[in-house]
Amino acid sequence: MREHDPETPQVRRILVALDASAYSLAALHEAVRLAVAMSAEIVGLYVEDVNLLRWAELPFTRVVRYPADKDADIDRRHMEGHLQRRALQARKALERIADEAEVSWSFRTVRGQVTAELLHAALEADLVALGRASYPRPRRIRLGSTARAMVAQAPHVVWLPASEEPEPFAPLFITYDGSVLARQGLLLAEAIADDRPLNCVLIGQGERLAELQAEVQEQVGPARARRVTFRQLASFDTGRLARIVSMEKGAGLVVAGDLPPLDARAFETLLDELDCAVLIVR
């Protein structure tokens, strides 16, 4: 990969929120792949949720086992053991996947409110990768509460990888408006895309579109430029953007640039409408 734009911060420290779920393991795999491409280190974090410990202390709390026909009592001691086992599973997964890729890694467990602890840890990371949800959900995977909070509040780059591997040559989409953030997003998109074609959605009008296209082609270089396709939007429109990515069965979307203030619900709708990976650069 070519050198970064001096104005653009490099990704050196990737925080991965781990909970041993299939979604967090998907985030771990993709984070390690990006760490290899960008010579970054992985920091795995498991949060022992204090809310679960408090619920376990309530006299009416029970575990409902499905499809088994019997419920089970649970108390704080059992819940602590459960959380410790999941933390151990998460650590072993990180160790195995990172060591196979020869990526530097570290792991720690903290106890607290999940979102608050992740946001605090994110202050020391360049990118945060996490699953869309913590538990299996029917049909389309809607964002879980933690993912929604991180998308809205995390200070840097947030990555929500897809839970399933996309088609091998499905394109990766990226928004581009020529800003410093857009250039950073393009560098990340190149690392994530690997051999996939890049579909660049230019945000602008008139003569500015030709300038943006030239910028992208110069930044990605001649080899990649041959595999870049351009789309155009006069302004950032979450609805149209979701339709473009969905219709062309994109492998992912990198949202980067000096975006206008967006209604939180509109942005969440964009994420809910897309089954693919989404990376937000701010």
Give a structural overview:
Helices cover 43% and strands 22% of the residues. The chain is an alpha/beta fold. A ten-stranded mixed beta sheet has the order 5-2-1-6-7-12-11-8-9-10, with helices on both faces. A two-stranded antiparallel sheet has the order 3-4. Helix 1 (22-38) packs parallel to helix 3 and helix 2 (50-56) packs antiparallel against helix 3 (76-101). The longest helix is centred in the first third of the chain and has 26 residues, at 76-101.
Give a quick rundown of the structure.
43% of the residues lie in helices and 22% in strands. It has helices at 22-38, 50-56, 76-101, 114-122, 145-153, 180-193, 207-225, 238-247, 264-273; strands spanning 13-17, 41-49, 62-64, 71-73, 105-112, 127-129, 157-160, 172-176, 198-203, 228-233, 252-256, 277-281. Strand 11, helix 9 and strand 12 form a beta-alpha-beta unit.
Query: Total helix count?
Result: 9
Strand order of the largest sheet: 5-2-1-6-7-12-11-8-9-10
H/E topology pattern = EHEHEEHEHEHEEHEHEHEHE
Largest sheet: 10 strands, mixed
Helix content: 40-55%
Shape: elongated
Distance between the termini: 22 Å
Radius of gyration: 20 Å
Strand percent estimate: 15-25%
User: From the helix content, strand content and strand pairing, which structural class follows?
Assistant: alpha/beta
Strand runs, count: 12
What's the pLDDT, averaged over the residues?
Answer: 84
Please mark out the parts with pLDDT under 50 across 5 or more consecutive residues, or reply none. 1-8
